[in-house]
């Protein structure tokens, strides 16, 4: 049984992130996407398949071509996850800054604890 892919797995690979960047500007056919990379068309097709399984791109048949179109709404899940940790680190860094300010003021006033 194949493990279910998720958006985090999809964006973990730099090639897939680059494909998303490429498609964020406009839909492209698979061959045009493959031409932009120094790898086989089959390797690019596998990346496209993973992005499609994760819902980050939609493939549609247009005549003889398969068109890839970015569906970047799924990245909202990543943004929300990152935001939680950004807030966590900002709070901790604010606390550290306050502590360092406190130490600096103590040092200026010649008091030591």
TrEMBL record:
Q: Does the keyword Coiled coil apply?
A: yes
Q: Which InterPro entries match?
A: ArsR-like_HTH (IPR011991), HTH_ArsR_DNA-bd_dom (IPR001845), WH-like_DNA-bd_sf (IPR036388), WH_DNA-bd_sf (IPR036390)
Report which residue ranges the record marks as coiled coil: 86-113
* Ranges where the HTH arsR-type domain occurs: 1-90
Q: Which GO terms describe its molecular function?
A: DNA-binding transcription factor activity
Reading the lineage from the top rank, the first entry is Bacteria
Entries under CDD domains matching the protein:
HTH_ARSR (cd00090)
Protein's name according to its UniProt entry: Putative ArsR family transcriptional regulator
Q: The organism's lineage?
A: Bacteria, Pseudomonadati, Bacteroidota, Chitinophagia, Chitinophagales
């Amino acid at each position: 049984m194949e493990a279910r892919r998720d958006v985090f797995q999809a964006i973990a690979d730099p090639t897939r992130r680059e494909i998303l960047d490429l498609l964020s500007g406009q839909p492209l056919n698979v061959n045009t996407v493959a031409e932009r990379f120094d790898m086989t068309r089959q390797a690019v097709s596998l990346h496209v398949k993973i992005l499609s399984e994760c819902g980050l791109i939609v493939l549609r048949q247009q005549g003889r071509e398969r068109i890839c179109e970015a569906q970047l709404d799924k990245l909202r899940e990543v943004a929300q996850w990152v935001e939680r940790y950004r807030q966590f680190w900002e709070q901790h860094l604010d606390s550290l800054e306050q502590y360092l300010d406190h130490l600096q003021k103590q040092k200026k006033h010649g008091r030591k604890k």
